[in-house]
Design brief:
Elements: H1 11-29, H2 36-59, H3 62-87, H4 96-121, H5 133-158
Helix pairs in contact: 1-2, 1-4, 2-3, 3-4
């Protein structure tokens, strides 16, 4: 998994920025029927995605980052809901392709954020703020122990008699 030094390099932030650009294009060309309150809410929700990614990225702990990822994901789902509702309006027919494209981007952001949250929840790292030489050394030792245990188990399995259920099967020779 790549390590990102800036939030703006994250693929999900790039998708959110692209969604904002598409939203801005729609809102500047949309008909008057699109009430200002709907415009404002859509713009706030779409900005919330990228801004919460950025804020969470800068917080320094995995738990804080996760909280902001979930807020960003909620905003992506809010944008999706608003776009689905707009698509139901008859006067928006001329903007159908723009709305479809924005829906795909909003749903992509939501999926990316969910995958990122899943990866973080299963990570033993508590976040940048918690990284110091002692924690790095401990993490490296743990990784080394796990690798050593895996190698030992593999070597041990090789000593079992052929046909034993715990012995790894050898690939047939062609």
């Amino acid at each position: 998994m790549p390590t990102y030094k800036r939030f703006a390099d994250l693929p999900v932030w790039q998708s959110a920025a692209q969604l904002f650009e598409r939203c801005d294009e729609l809102l500047t060309t949309a008909p008057r029927e699109l009430r200002s309150s709907v415009r404002d809410q859509l713009e706030r929700a779409v900005l919330s995605i990228s801004n919460n990614i950025a804020e969470g990225f800068g917080r320094g702990t995995t738990s804080e980052l996760l909280a902001f990822i979930y807020i960003a994901r909620g905003s992506a789902d809010e944008v999706t809901s608003m776009l689905l509702l707009l698509a139901r309006r008859p006067w928006i027919a001329n903007y159908k392709s723009q709305i479809t494209n924005m829906l795909e981007l909003a749903e992509s952001c939501s999926r990316q954020l969910r995958a990122w949250a899943d990866a973080l929840q299963n990570s033993p790292i508590a976040g940048q703020r918690h990284l110091n030489q002692k924690s790095r050394t401990g993490y490296q030792r743990q990784q080394s122990r796990e690798e050593g245990a895996s190698k030992f188990q593999s070597m041990l399995a090789q000593t079992l008699p052929p046909g034993h259920p715990a012995r790894p099967r050898e690939a047939p020779n062609p």
